[in-house]
Fold these 2 entries.
Entry 1:
Amino acid sequence: MKILVCISNVPDTTTKVTFTDNNTKFNTVGVQYIINPYDELALTRALEITEKQTGTVTAINVGLADAEPSIRKALAIGATDAVRINADPTDAYFVAEQVAAYAKAENFDLILTGRESIDYNGGQVAGLLGEMLNFPSVNVVTAIEIENGIATMERDIDGGKEKLTCKLPLVASAQKELTEPRIPNMRGIMAARTKPLKVVEPNGAEKTSATISFDMPPAKGLCKMIAPENAEQLIDLLHNEAKII
Amino acid sequence: MSIIVFAESTDGNFKKSTLEAVAYAAEVAKNTSTNCVAVSIGNVDDSKASELAKFGADKIVSIKNDKLIGFVAEAYAKALANIASQENATVIVVSNTYSGKAIAPRVAAKLKAGIVSGVISYPDTSNGFKIRKTVFSGKAFADVNITTAAKVLAITPNTFNTIENNKTANIISVDAGLTDSDFITHSVEISRASGKIPLTEAEIVVSGGRGLKGPENWGLIENLAEALGAATACSKPVSDMHWRPHSEHVGQTGITIKPNLYIAVGISGAIQHLAGVSSSKVIVAINKDPEAPFFKAADYGIVGDAFEVMPKIIEAAKKLKAQHA
Ligand SMILES: Cc1cc2nc3c(=O)[nH]c(=O)nc-3n(C[C@H](O)[C@H](O)[C@H](O)COP(=O)(O)OP(=O)(O)OC[C@H]3O[C@@H](n4cnc5c(N)ncnc54)[C@H](O)[C@@H]3O)c2cc1C
Ligand SMILES: Nc1ncnc2c1ncn2[C@@H]1O[C@H](COP(=O)(O)O)[C@@H](O)[C@H]1O
């Protein structure tokens, strides 16, 4: 089994989001970066699969050198090796083209991504990769087992779940529930220092979109307080004042 | 030239999010002086499909094929992309549902189209093609310029209005030109909780946190939800402790929702939780701690013990429901 796991380097979930340069750039001052939480699940599941039946897990990131701590962490958690495509990942289409170009030459059996990156919330890379590589893609996967070259999966659908099967190769995107993320141990952290991290220059693919500026949601007005003794008034207010029920 | 919209259906019926997408596409078509073509995939009755005209479709393409009754991402994407090419589509609109999210990027890659998901505005074409989306799970917005000739937009459900008119449109049945090799994934089983409103489509959501002390107290959430016709949700620790299914977890690492009304009971209002719910139109926080951060994000608040205030609220909601029954 050769598995590729796509790792996105994102601001920690506690980040207070602010912008600079006239709201054209995300303010990275004091921001802690982490592996995108869904990618951590994808990575852990990939390791579980290769522990059951031999194989390798390659972590790939499209990013600049500042993403390397997250890539090293992926190695410390257990990835066999890692690749960084040296480019600013501002466009999901571009990111997918870079990963697809790398994957084409490597014959992976399974490519795992996260369901979405928690910064850009695109949820696009898995489907884009699938199409670019001519692989099927299954998103929001909550369970995956591989046996005899066939993946048996469960995924979220609107209002429920679907069980499905697919022969490899395949792209799947990880949703919560897939597994519990692993925390690197001391041995893993030591080993990660000497594991291969290859840096590759991007191909000439063009970007398809550009973020022009950012904005914050309008601030909420004052919260109208209702005395707990008269809690039932809430329903009246929602009906007659907010006109929402 | 045309604007294409994916008319998603489940068991032969369109959802509210589908009608929103059709109305959105019709508006884009009007603003760019083109036609809106709705594409229905799966065996939807012509009488049903014709309803799409009322929401703005100028033409309805119906792809009927027994193999397409269930959703198969790669086949649906190919069918939609084929129609988009035939119709010379400039913009392809889907709703950002789980199925919409599965096909939008595949369609984009086939058409070499730039793609933006989580769209919350109509395109501004005064200088390029600018579109607004949510980022950081609702903590902020980004204005993105798409530079390719064709564009794919996955729009956020419950964001755009629908207007019904009495327009009619022709239904054209086509063969999507699919082969066996377009069906690689096989659906084995689908389970949907019957009678329950899916969280992603709900207009009202009642949600509980750790303040409810245990799963045995969820009647407080469910009874209010039932009286209001709402879906139920929960905070992350609640699903982590298996008090409630993971599918109910909302927030930055759960589902992002945008209902008209979100009622949070015994939830502190941590930044990761708020990220997933703060776009709700009206927010109610019920918490015994007056300092709970949720009150800063709420429109209505009650500082009180959930076990004392919820029965009163449920009672009042039942009364209201009875009056309007
Ligand atoms: C990487 C990461 C991602 C995360 N993602 C998410 C996410 O997506 N969604 C999410 O929800 N959380 C997320 N969290 C967790 C988040 O930080 C909070 O820990 C969580 O939201 C708290 O849940 P809670 O409000 O239910 O519990 P608590 O913080 O324990 O709050 C319970 C609240 O109930 C109130 N209360 C207690 N008793 C009563 C009573 N009798 N009546 C009324 N009120 C009462 C208390 O005053 C308190 O405010 C994430 C955390 C991390 C680190
Ligand atoms: N810069 C990147 N490098 C590698 N993988 C990425 C990158 N950006 C996104 N991904 C992968 O694609 C998934 C979905 O990202 P997105 O489409 O941006 O929401 C993430 O969870 C990652 O697995």
Note: Chain A touches chain B through 80 residues (CB under 8 Å).
Entry 2:
Amino acid sequence: MSFPILSLMLAVPAVAAIACLFLSAPAARVTALAATLIDLALGVVLWTSFDVGGAQWQFVEYAPLFGRFGWALGIDGYALLLIVLSVFLMPICIGASWQAIERRVPEYMAAFLFTEVLMIGTFAAQDLFLFYIFFEAGLIPMFLIIGIWGGANRIYASYKFFLYTLLGSLLMFIAMLYMSITAGTTSIPVLLNYDFPASVQTWLWLAFFASFAVKMPMWPVHTWLPDAHVQAPTAGSVILAGVLLKLGGYGFLRFSLPMFPEASASLVWLVFGLSAVAVIYTSLVALVQSDMKKLIAYSSVAHMAIVTIGLFAFNAQGIEGAMMVMLGHGLVSGALFLCVGVIYDRLHTREISRYGGLAINMPRYAILFLLFTMASIGLPGTSNFVGELLSLMGTYQVSTTIALLCTTGIILGAGYMLYLYRRVVFGEIKSEEVRQMSDLTPRELWLLVPIAAAVLWMGVYPESFLAPMRKDTQILLARIDRAKPAGDSLPTKGTGIVPAAHAETSAHGSAH
Amino acid sequence: MDYAANLAMTLPELVLAVGAIALMLVAAWGGPASTKAVSWVSVAVLGGALIALTGPASAGGDAFYGLYRADAFAAFAKVLIYIGASVAILMAPDFFRRTAGADLRPEYPVLILLSACGMGMMVSAGDLLTLYVGLELQSLAAYVLASFMRQDTRSAEAGLKYFVLGALASGILLYGISLVYGFTGSTMFDEIAGAYAAAPLTGSGRSLGLLFGLVFVFAGLAFKISAVPFHMWTPDVYEGAPTPVTAFFASAPKVAAIALAVRVAIEAMGPAEVQWRQIVIFASLASILLGAVAAIGQQNVKRLLAYSSINNVGFALIGLAAGTPEGVASVMTYMTIYLAMTLGSFLVVLQMRDADGQPIETIDSLAGLSRTRPGLAAALAIFMFSLAGIPPLFGFYAKFAVFYAAVQAGLFPLAVVGVVFSVIGAYYYLRLVKTMYFDEPTGTFGAGDKLEGGLIAVAAVFVSPLGYLAIPALSAWTLAAANSLF
């Protein structure tokens, strides 16, 4: 067995989290930052030593510690990218909370570090129940983060977040019990190739859907998200949008599609229908928001719908595009929440109407905010363009109507994002307090510039991110191809060959 | 089989009975001054009974011509019972010393010893009469314990209420026993099982006497485990009884009553599984639902924990409904983890005292506990999330085990409805966490006792994710215990 790097990545923040609880506020900040940076370094090691095109599961660890299930870790390309995204955003979250959080700092840092442990664990788990434990345990620190450090209506939001997601997950739990008993194993790699009868698949698929649709979140079970985002502290929003929302998409990719291909195919209409409604409905809702965070939260729901249609397109473009949207959205929406946090820290309001003319006194801020706004719209050259284009291309092959409906989301997205940008950054400075606002501090630049660089990297050279998952997509497609739904945008069959042309061709043939 | 071998198998009960009688004499002559000594010796006696379990008492087979069973199942339940009883003795002195108008008397540990002896008889019963005698010994000691704070009217009310309703339940149980005896001709579990297997239980010619006997026996047992619809006494008794006694009621007798119900269901009425399963499923789902819904409005933390115990019994019964060895093992797993969570929660409740040391029981008084007493708040939060069954805490594994058994037995609707109801339960556990962590502090509690702090820490570590490392040992042990019933 090789060096257990995944366990180490889990152990570092876990130990640091416990240490934080016993430290003073400044020491806790430093400890948390150090732990997340170590994990980032380990993440880079993980990425560079990942053998692209090699074995499907790498860095595998196994210890039968828990009787009915075991400590089984291992990653493929999808998990690798999402882990790298998590460890990349974590130090930024700690940095964003450096001054914004003044109360109960040690507990705050501990909660964030525990969240990091659980996220990495969720992506790395190779055992059904180990996955469930990490997946579900993430509720506890997030509940505390929203509830303790959140805004005015934080208690309502924290309950809603917790109970909504818990209900969805528990149905999945029963399905997991059934699967492990029927298949006689809890190993995810084995279950990926286990064929459940089609009739059972539908029920299992629906149970998993109940969980992932809430996490995703898909319309109409998305209502917890705007509340949670608005009430959460800035870093909480970043991690919620950046990584926790990816758990749903990852779940579809890891469980629903390969384990229940027939059910996935027969229920594509459900996913597509809900996603199309989500794209249009939530984009329109975003257009009328007066609260910046709420606007970005609704735009997240719309972007996640692009992910779900891509995943259920049953082709390489769709699936890889969905992954790219997840990664891109993780960076961009995280950065947008940071941008909101930057001005919230100065004026303590998220009301769009209170701002205006920030380009005059905050030029550096205006540039970075513009970059992330454009990335969110999906401008070519930024991360989201690659993902959205691929995802919609994939969808087009299955359903032209849905691709058409979902593409309107990009137009509407341009509408609400540019409208937001115009109201906040352009125009005249309306009040004295806005005039007093200072431009980005070096600390804030350190938070935003790395994300900006990553966004451009993904947009200009997406191959770095597509390469690790290419082989996994091929394996996944080989698995689900048998159930692939018929597309409605295939070239139509011709009505026969025109006789004259036919004669010409045969003449050519005889001439040779 | 000679008499000495029979006695060797019942050694734990003998140790407890002789110890209790000897200590009763000490208490009679020593008076209140002997309280401390009697308490410590009682814990030692329980430890002695635990050691006695290692001998023939855990694997000897039938003693006294089948009246008494010394098997792995009984031994496992007794370990839990003795732990619960020991903690109940250990947590009492500090509580009574601080509480005005109540003093600990040496009879308290003696009564707990007698109760533990009765519980040992219950879980080892191989005959309906042993069952009844054990149950009554346990209950009579418990009635006195409930009203131990004689000056407190709530305590007296709790004792009286417990006694009256307990007597009613005993009557129902005895009525069931007499019906079973009348229609099977025996009180021995093995022969009853034979009679149930031979008699027709379905169709027009079914034996109504046997079925009615079964229903009455289960109704009586449901009272003892406080399953809905026989739960009404629980909140009042839990609220009124002194807190250490409440902790005792929620732990050891609960384990004993569940183990007894499992043994009767599997050993005596195993052939009538289809018939009792309906009762168990109803009691289970009703308990989960009522335990969850009724707890939402509670303001008193002891009442809240009473409803929580009703809720938890419902989950344990899911494992029994499966009726398989795995199901029985899951019930025992559940009760093991439940014991740690419940004792831990009540130990935290014991720390809730105002500046004068008087106990406070309102949930609102917990406000902001995470600032004033972070360690205590973290421990209670662990217990609450664990009771709610949220991973990675060990309470999740308890629910995992019972739902695993239910799904394995094909009881999908039960499992699905059970988990959906558990979300309702999660709400009120979260309410405690919210009060401690989200609300502003209103006051602070007096300093705690070192011994109690240590016990809380042990329980919290067991319930924390570290507890998962105990799973292989726990599953092997519970499965061995369960297999001894089949």
Note: The two ends of chain B are 23 Å apart (CA to CA).
